[in-house]
Design goal:
With 570 residues, the chain is α+β, with helices and mostly antiparallel strands. The chain is built from 9 helices and 33 strands.
Length: 570
């Protein structure tokens, strides 16, 4: 979804559901001629990490769409001894395919703490679904990088329960052991007191855990992550009142009200006021549950970024919100568009496909690993450095000198002093563009693969407001080296630009822990640049957007396959 075409020739059928709203009318187009589509490139790990940028700690939210280690609908017992029916992969082959796609999703997110939804609720032992997922993540990393928060969980005072809820699925927390440390108690609300989370209302029991992270100045910071999964709109507890919020809105509103009350009691026994609420709230951004949390002082992040598509309609069911004390520390929050846009035919399932399709449609990558797009939040808990790390002074051919520094939470370090290069030695500049201080050739290594770094250059004179970072090299959309610009922050004489390993801006375009780059401060001397004139070519770095998403998704949403494979709605 999101691709466009200029024309389609074929036979158009209309399907109308007389019991549904107007938006349920669907169309099927059978082309009689080949169709040519165009659209943005798929987002990659590198483009995601570039969008998230530098951060002290990264927190992710991911719905893993019923990851079960019991197969098919086989019954199993949850930690409370309740018998539940399975709903995941039908056989071991599907389980391996599902697991590998989810691992690519989670590892690609590059987070330090993961809030997980729709994990099978079959305990915390080695034979449980959560242990199996973390073991697969560690195998992919080659060492014991990740661990998970285990029960029993505190549910008030010295009371404990063996799991987060009695349902077949549960929420979970995974964390990077070398980066964060769990502190206090892992906690869930007592379902007898907080009845929004029992079977009557159907919201899954939330899980809270506080973590501690070491800062660059030798101190430590504590924060609390709360994972949520509220009642869906797909089954009826309290009916749809016709206000546009679907069924079970009152159940979801009751849940966030009780969630706020529960968190006020410091359930993890860590008094930090820095809270992150994340998960599948099954409520769109302007619905009552989200606006209620905002009214309590939580700030909703990633505005305007959708996470879910249903029958041609798009919106955000998945959210990340932070408390007021944490809001000043927020960096970037990004929804990784790898699932909702992708057709279900690419998922792990082998049914409804021929053997050739089973082999050719599947790839062990992150695309269509779930039906919800995951989210990554970067928190800048470290104090902003007054001087960039690993700074070098470079003599400029035009006179004077520039101070070049690199700061990175991904451990990137400059390999040595940058060298000044005349732009013409790289390639003719586009018409109207000037780089008066020349370009700087530099490289950095030792980066966490896919990580980002912040390059800052202090020039001899104040820079114009329209200064950008002009870069020479290949891009994902144009492999031949050329001049293109990257957005930069300008403050007087200082230019700062974010660059990511493997993304546009890194000459080798490979996620290999190394960034190679010639570029420098440039601006238009006068007037706009005409891409069709001048000695060079101006190329804008492609940006993800919603343009075209509505235009074709309703037409070619593969509605029959979508409805066949739609996840159960308990």
């Amino acid at each position: 979804a999101g691709d466009t075409t200029t024309a389609i020739e074929g036979v158009l059928d209309q399907f109308v559901d007389p019991l549904a709203g107007a938006h349920q009318t669907s169309y099927r187009l059978s082309p009689s001629q080949p169709v040519v589509f165009a659209g943005a490139e798929r987002p990659t790990v590198a483009t995601l990490q570039q969008a998230v940028g530098q951060a002290t700690v990264k927190i992710a939210s991911a719905n893993v769409l019923n990851f079960f280690t019991s197969l098919g609908t086989k019954n199993f017992s949850n930690p409370f001894g309740d018998v539940q029916a399975g709903r995941g992969a039908d056989d071991n082959a599907e389980l391996v395919r599902q697991r590998d796609k989810i691992v690519a999703n989670l590892v690609g997110l590059g987070a330090d703490v993961y809030g997980i939804m729709e994990m099978q609720n079959n305990g915390f032992g080695a034979d449980g679904a959560l242990a199996a997922m973390v073991a697969a993540m560690n195998q992919q990393q080659g060492s014991e990088v990740f661990a998970y928060v285990k029960g029993p969980f505190s549910n008030g005072g010295d009371q404990t329960v063996v799991a987060a809820g009695h349902d077949a699925i549960t929420v979970a927390l995974i964390y990077r052991q070398g980066k964060v440390r769990p502190v206090g108690k892992a906690a869930v609300p007592d379902e007898r007191q907080y009845d929004a989370f029992n079977a009557t209302y159907g919201n899954r029991v939330p899980l809270a855990q506080s973590f501690e992270v070491s800062l660059a100045d030798g101190t430590a910071e504590q924060f609390t992550v709360v994972v949520n999964h509220l009642k869906s709109k797909g089954s009826v507890n309290d009916p749809d009142t016709g206000d546009g919020q679907g069924a079970n809105n009152q159940a979801r509103l009751r849940a966030v009200n009780q969630l706020h009350t529960w968190l006020a009691g410091t359930p993890t026994q860590i008094t930090s006021d820095k809270l992150v609420l994340l998960g599948d709230f099954n409520a769109y951004a302007k619905e009552d549950p989200i606006t209620y949390l905002e009214a309590q002082g939580y700030q909703k992040l990633a505005p305007g970024q959708y996470s879910y598509g249903f029958q041609g309609l798009w919106g955000a069911l998945d959210h990340v919100l932070v408390s007021q004390a944490l809001a000043p520390k927020v960096g970037n929050a990004v929804k990784w568009h790898i699932n909702a846009e992708e057709p279900p035919v690419l998922d792990y399932n082998t049914n409804y496909k021929t053997p050739a399709q089973v082999a050719s449609f599947y790839a062990a990558d992150a695309y269509r690993s779930s039906d919800h797009n995951p989210i990554v939040l970067g928190l800048n808990l470290d104090k902003a450095p007054t001087e960039p790390a690993h700074a070098y002074v470079v003599q400029l051919p035009s006179g004077g000198s520039a101070t070049v520094g690199l700061t990175s939470a991904a451990q990137c370090k400059l390999d040595g002093a940058p060298t000044a290069v005349k732009p013409a030695a790289l390639g003719a500049l586009p018409k109207g563009v000037t780089l008066p201080y020349q370009a700087l050739q530099w490289s950095a290594s030792g980066c966490v693969p896919g990580g980002s770094a912040s390059l800052s250059v202090t020039y001899p004179d104040p820079l114009p407001a329209n200064t950008q970072y002009w870069k020479w090299g290949p891009t994902a959309s144009q492999p031949q080296p050329h001049w293109y610009s990257l957005p930069a922050v300008v403050n007087g004489r200082v230019l700062t630009v974010q660059l990511a390993d493997g993304a546009d801006g890194d000459d080798d375009l490979s996620v290999n822990g190394k960034i190679v780059d010639p570029g420098g401060a440039g601006w238009l001397a006068a007037g706009p640049v005409d891409p069709g004139t001048g000695a060079g070519t101006v190329t804008a770095v492609p940006a993800l957007s919603l343009s075209g998403l509505m235009g074709l998704s309703g037409l070619l949403a593969m509605a029959a396959a979508w409805l066949r494979r739609r996840k159960p709605q308990p």
